[in-house]
Amino acid sequence: MLAHIPFPILPAPPSWFPGHMLQFQRNLPHLLTRTDVVLELRDARLPLTSINRKFEGALQTWRRERGAIPTPPPANDAGPSALPMTPRATGSGLVCERIVVFNKRDLVPEWGIKPFERAMAAKYPDQRVFFASWNKTRDIKALNELLVGVAKHNPHAPEMNVLVVGMPNVGKSTLLNALRNIGIAGREQFFVRSRSVPSAANSVGTAHWGTSWITRAISTRLKLSIDPLVYAWDTPGVMLPFLGNGDSGAERGVKLALIAGIKEGLYDIDALASYLLYRLNVLDPVSPAYLQILPPGTQPLTDVYEFLDLLAKRLGMLRRGGIRDTARAAVWFVQWWRGEGGLAAAASPRAAARGWGFDFQWDLADPPDSDPSAGAVAPPDATGAGSEKSQERHDEAVIQAQMEACIDRFERGIDEEEVGGANVSKTQEKKKVRQDLLARRKAKADRKWAKKVAGV
To answer: From CA 44, how far away is CA 186, in angstroms rounded?
Structure first.
């Protein structure tokens, strides 16, 4: 077992906020006036890091204008995703739902999903949480039923409009096409496809990037259901304009690059491999998931170059002269984790004692911050053996408390960055100074003009 796991040296985060993202961000308030349901997609592997705080202001204004009243989540052991999907009450009578969908459910440990749903319901009562994998038909059907259920509870509305938002490469277009295929079946689906509704990927301006397509413009409306009528818009993925200064910003950038949320090529592959090695060690310092791809008998490693050298040897990746190609091995390592390796990490029996994914980290030898009186409790499946139902619920409560403490720390950190200006780049600071200067000049000119008109 690794006794000490050093935090890797990470590069400063790059700036990546192309014009189509800025344009959509400016158009968002207007789009929301025609929106009944906001479907926000996040990556289940980074449930906190993939939050885009730039949406929050517009979404809160939308809720206020529609008279939405947040209601506390009902106590239900089945978790929020299993609750009846009825719309929340609004003072105006308009539909105003925010559903947060976490994609790639199969790449996170199943034991943490229910505690996470409850933790999110406790911290964000105005949001519904739904976990899914786009390759699972049952998940797409359940999400379709959720949307159709909201529409059926509002029969007075002739149609329901869904706006799909999220960071880049979280699977928005893939989700919409899957929802349409489920919601509009048989000959009617063929009729809609051929005459009125193109696919999400083809109905908007797109650009090829690596192994995926980037949506660059808002799509035409896609019909998801005929009775009741449900339409949806696909939108461009929007990155944060600046990921932040210091260690927190550097780590945020590397995390997003690992899930391909940042344009390929902006990060050195060794930095991604180094952080990935660190995180897999943290989750399971005894038998990290990467041991299965190294030569048999290898012990856990903390030196990324030693690790990549062994991996290149195992994979037979050689350059001219018989030199091991560690750069190629680093690329393979990251790609492995995005698929098969993510499944292996999610199946680790020891991870529950250390954390859940890359955004939640704890040590169950210590009580959570939010509950000082809580004692250490063995996490579910930590020993690989089944537990009694009551003990399992108690374990889930402990995990939930740990998750709520992590969410609190995340929110405090973001608030501190905003107050201290750590989330604003030097370029943005210069731009704001110039905008303030121009505003003062305009105000001064307006005052002079007003005096001249008044004859003063």
So the answer is: 32
My answer on whether 229 and 271 are in the same domain is no
Taking alpha carbons only, the member of 405, 407, 346, 406 closest to residue 381 is 346
Which residues constitute the domain of residue 316?
1-12+242-348
Is 357 among the domain residues?
no
Give the chain's domain count: 4
Structure tokens at 106: 């199969």
266 and 283 belong to one structural domain = yes
The tokens for 306 are 């030693």
Q: Say what the pTM is.
A: 0.77
Please list the residues that pair with 129 across neighbouring strands.
100
Task: Please report whether residue 307 resides in a domain.
Answer: yes
Which of 177, 211, 233 is the C-terminal boundary of a domain? 233
Q: What is the pLDDT along the chain (456 residues), one digit of tens a residue?
A: 788 899 999 988 887 777 878 888 888 999 999 999 999 999 999 999 988 888 888 898 999 888 875 545 554 444 444 444 445 545 456 889 999 999 999 999 999 999 999 999 999 998 999 999 988 999 999 999 999 999 999 888 889 999 999 988 888 888 988 998 888 765 454 433 333 344 554 444 444 434 444 555 566 788 999 989 999 998 888 887 778 888 888 999 999 999 988 877 888 999 999 999 999 999 999 999 999 999 999 999 999 999 999 999 999 999 998 999 999 999 999 999 999 999 999 888 887 888 998 999 988 764 444 443 333 344 444 444 444 554 455 588 999 999 999 999 999 988 888 776 555 555 655 565 566 677 778 888 888 888 877 876
Q: Which of 72, 78, 73 is nearest to 114 (CA)?
A: 78
Domain boundary among the residues 212, 233, 254 is at 233
Phi first, then psi, for residue 99 (nearest 5°) are -115, 125
